[in-house]
Amino acid sequence: MEADAGAAVLSYAVAAIADEAAGPGELTALLAALCDVLAFASEALILELPSPDALAKRLPALVVAGGGGEADGDVPLLAARAIAEAVEGAPPHWASRLAGNGAVEALRDRLLAVECIDLAEECLRALDAISLERQDDCLRLGVAAAVLQYFDFFSVSKQKVALRIVSNIFNDYDEEYAATAMEAVPALCNLLQSADKTVLGSALSFLAMVAAGSSKNVEHMGKLCESNVIEATMSLMTSGGWKSLSDGTLTDILGLLKSVASVSAKAVKSLFELDVCELLREMISYYSCSNDANDKVKILVELMYQLMPPLKTSDQHAELVIAKKNVIMEQRTYINQLASVATLIVQVAKSAALSSICYNCVIVIGNIVELSTDSFLMELQKTVNLSRLNVHAMTPSTENPDSCKQLSELSRRLLSDKLPVTSTFEFVESGSIKYLADYLSNGACFNANMRNGQDLLGQLNEVRNRLQKFTCLALAESNEISVKPIGVLVEKLLDALHMYYDSFPVMLSDEQSARESMVIPLRFSETEERTSLELKFQRSYREKVLERYNGALSVDLFSTPEDIEPILWPHVCKRNDQEPASKNQETEANQSRRFVESENGDGNKSLRLTFSYNGTTLPPSATFFESILCLMNKGHSDLSIDSSFWDEEHKVTYSRSKTTDEISPRCSYNTQLSHLHENLEQSWLKDPFFSTILLGKLPGDLDESNPSYSILFMLKVLEGLNRLSYQLLMDDQICKFAEGTLQDIRDLDVAFHPIPRHQFMSNLLTKKLELQMQDNLFEDGLIPSWCVYLVETCPFLLPFDTRWKYFCLTAHQSFFKKQTNSSSEQVNSTADQVNSNADQVKSPPQTIRYRVTRGTILEDASSLMINHCPSSRIVEVEFAGEVGTGRGPTFEFYTTVSHELQRAELGMWRGENGEAGYIHAPFGLFPRPWSSSSTSSQGVDFSNMVKKFKLLGHLVARAVLDGRILDIPLSKAFYKIMLEQAVIEFQALVERKKFLETSTIQTSNPATDLSYKNVTLDDLCLYFTLPGNPEYELVPGGSEKKLTLDNLEEYVSSLVDATVKSGIATQIEAFKSGINEVFALKTLKMFTEEEMERILCGEQDAWASKNLEEHIEFEHGYDTSSPSIISFLEILREFGREEQRAFIQFTTGAPQLPLGGLASLDPKLTVVRKQCDGNIDDELPSVNTCRHFIKLPPYSSKEIMRKKLKYALVEGLGSFHLS
Question: Where is the composition biased (Polar residues) (predicted)?
Answer without folding.
Answer: 581-593
